[in-house]
Amino acid sequence: QVQLVESGGGLVQPGGSLRLSCAASGFTLDYYAIGWFRQAPGKEREGVSCISSSDGSTYYADSVKGRFTISRDNAKKTVDLQMNNLKPEDTAVYYCWGSGDIWGQGTQVTVSS
Q1: 3-class SS of residue 61
Q2: d(CA 104, CA 88)
Q3: Distance (Å, whole) CA 68 – CA 36
Q4: How far apart are CA 107 and CA 56, in angstroms?
């Protein structure tokens, strides 16, 4: 069964950090670009970060540049999103996406004091 499963979400205070992980199963991760999207209440889903399958090149939305870092470990079949200096506006459900339109179920991130 082809699937992506996110973990690592939770409640954190502003300025804090979280590390999200996306675990792939049922397919060879090496051949797929993997991205992170997020959706806040009442807002459209937006792209946060992406990492290519070929050379590991990365993309970040302007709103997270310098604070978030995406990385992949093809051997472990995981893609992580390290999120530092979190802000209340980062609060959202975060989804892992694989090229070929594979989606995870999402993990909640709440940034609040």
Answers
A1: coil
A2: 23
A3: 11
A4: 24
